[in-house]
Amino acid sequence: MTEWLKDVEPLTLKGQIAVPYTWWAGETGSRFLVSIRDKRKILGTKCKECGKVFVPPRKNCGRCFTNMEEWVEIADEGVIKAHTIVHYAHPLQPVGPPFAYALIRLDGADVDFLHLIKKDLDKIRNGLRVKAIFSEQRTGHILDIDSFELI
Amino acid sequence: MDNAAIVGVAQTKYERRKKDQIFADLVFDVTRAALDDAGLGIDDIDSVVTVSNDFFDGRTISGMAVGDACGGQDKNISTVSGDGTFGAFYGLMRVLSGYKATIVVAHCKGSEGSLPLATNGMFDPIFQRHLGIDAISSAAIQANVYLTRYGIREEDIAQVSVKNHGNARRNPFAQLPMEITVADVMKSRKIAEPLKLLDCCPISDGAAAIIIAGEEVVARCKTKPAWIKGVAHCSEDYLLGDRDLANPVALRDAARRAYKMAGIRNPLAEIDVAEVLEPFSYMEPLWLEGLDICEPGKGFRMIDEGVTVMGGKLPVNPSGGALSANPVLVAGLARLIEASLQVRGDAGARQIKGAGTALAHGFNGPCGQSHCVWIVGGNR
């Protein structure tokens, strides 16, 4: 460090970068979110080439490079395939720690769905079944599923 | 391949908070030092690749802010917003397409922003970002899959932290040289299970630079070149739920293609030292499996078996790795710098005696979505 800097506190300048941005959920994402909001039903899309059912849904199968046009209703229950119990906090987490993230293989899907588990953290193990808890106030948002709970 | 080499390298010391230097100061220092290392002047460089990320830097077109500092005026300058190993790949492509010498500079100051907030930005904004997922919590999910699949104990991955922080004591650039035990790791604060504080990289500030040159410039350099023998990268699915997180298929693909290019048939026997990007302890054994250095599920045994320790058959991360300093994006370039120093014989106290062939690895994206593998050699 330069000699004179040892005698002074280097200055900092604070910024508050909060760049507003509005993401369109798109045709596929909108249908998925509206279904959760209005019917409490989780939907996926199915690839006509490989037959895989994807949730969250998307318009293209990345592996087969095809359009996916078939919609499939998926269960609101499934199996925990992976999880972590989080012990640190940051402002973007929707709930304070401790809470869990889990990759959940919903019945009828062929990929895992990332979401939250807030209760019974000491009982969580991979392989256990969980069920979606829908929020009472639903707005067309991924957190219209409040979290998953052990069955 | 045998017609391009890394002829100059430089790193800053990695620190938690660099208060006296802004991005451009860091980049200027490593640019000057890399040129001095090579014995070249700035006029010998005809192509510039900067590596930075706008979220981390808190500004857009973050690469442009360091163009002056790396001699980019009046030159072809371009930016890679990804790990430094990928920036180096781009730099190599430019040399192979006719530029005489490319400097690749990377910078990051983890201390100035918020890593959870910035890394949350990696994730899909419709379906995942609002869950608050970030680099650490996604890595913890991957660690959970990996450990449970193969019955690996938390103590087994804690050994990686012990080894790498210990190795860092011989690396003057490392941020966290430490003599610790498995018990210290186990009793450190829980971050996201199974990861504890000492399973996780620190927040770091720093910069690094390399010069990649074609034959004509290599011949004029004062330093022994690190010849580029093989390199490849590969990416897999974006969403975590689409991937088998305990099976790094993209890494395996990249490694096999890099080995083929380098003429390597048995990586464990033919590679003398490896530097892999392991910001979390479990990543080192998992990446060794993806690199075909051991069988799937056996990576955690490599320390106990004495393979990856200093003096072992294939020492891994003699520098201390990303666990001992993780300026994001810079850290991958640091792995390539360390590999180059090893085959030059210039790695100081962390030198692996007689290292002729070295591997460097970096990755991008949550849980290693895409990987880049380099093989460098001391002889052409």
Determine the number of helices of chain A (DSSP H or I, runs of at least 4 residues).
1
Annotated CATH architecture of the domain at 4-114 and 203-218 in chain B: 3-Layer(aba) Sandwich
Instruction: Report the span from N to C terminus of chain A.
Output: 59 Å
Radius of gyration from the alpha-carbon trace of chain B, in angstroms: 19 Å
What is the share of helical residues of chain A?
under 10%
The ordered H/E elements of chain B are: EHEHEHEHHHHEEEHEHHEHHEE
How big a fraction of the residues of chain B is strand?
15-25%
Oligomer: heterodimer
Extract low-pLDDT stretches of chain A: none
What is the helix fraction of residues of chain B, given as a range?
Answer: 25-40%
Structural class of chain A: mainly beta
Instruction: Please give the number of β-strands of chain A.
Output: 10
Number of domains of chain A: 1
Biggest β-sheet strands, sense, barrel of chain A = 5 strands, antiparallel
Strand content of chain A: 25-35%
CATH H-level superfamily of the domain at 4-114 and 203-218 in chain B: Thiolase/Chalcone synthase
Strand line-up of the largest beta sheet of chain B:
3-2-4-7-1-8-11-10-9
- Number of helices, where a helix is a run of at least 4 consecutive DSSP H or I residues of chain B: 12
Largest interface: which pair?
Answer: A-B, 42 and 42 residues
**CATH fold node name of the domain at 4-114 and 203-218 in chain B:** Peroxisomal Thiolase, Chain A, domain 1
The side-by-side strand order for the widest beta sheet of chain A comes to 8-7-6-9-10
Describe this structure in words.
The complex is a heterodimer of chains A (151) and B (380). Chain A has 151 residues and is mainly beta. Chain A has one domain (25-150). Chain A contains 1 helix and 10 strands, in the order H-E-E-E-E-E-E-E-E-E-E. Chain A has one helix spanning 26-39; strands spanning 42-46, 53-54, 60-61, 66-67, 70-74, 77-86, 99-106, 113-117, 129-134, 145-150. In chain A, the strands form 3 sheets. A 5-stranded antiparallel sheet of chain A has the order 8-7-6-9-10, with no helix packed on it. The longest helix of chain A has 14 residues, at 26-39. The radius of gyration of chain A is 21 Å and the shape is extended. The mean pLDDT of chain A is 94. Chain B is of the alpha/beta class. Chain B has a domain at 4-114 and 203-218: Thiolase/Chalcone synthase (Peroxisomal Thiolase, Chain A, domain 1), CATH 3.40.47. Helices cover 32% and strands 19% of the residues of chain B. Chain B has 12 helices and 11 strands. Chain B has helices spanning 23-38, 54-57, 84-96, 115-120, 135-150, 154-167, 182-187, 215-218, 249-262, 267-270, 283-290, 330-344, and strands at 4-11, 47-51, 76-80, 101-109, 190-192, 195-196, 205-214, 226-235, 273-275, 357-364, 370-377. In chain B, the strands form 2 sheets. In chain B, strands 3-2-4-7-1-8-11-10-9 form a 9-stranded mixed sheet. Chain B is globular and about 55 Å long. The interface between A and B is large, with 42 and 42 residues.
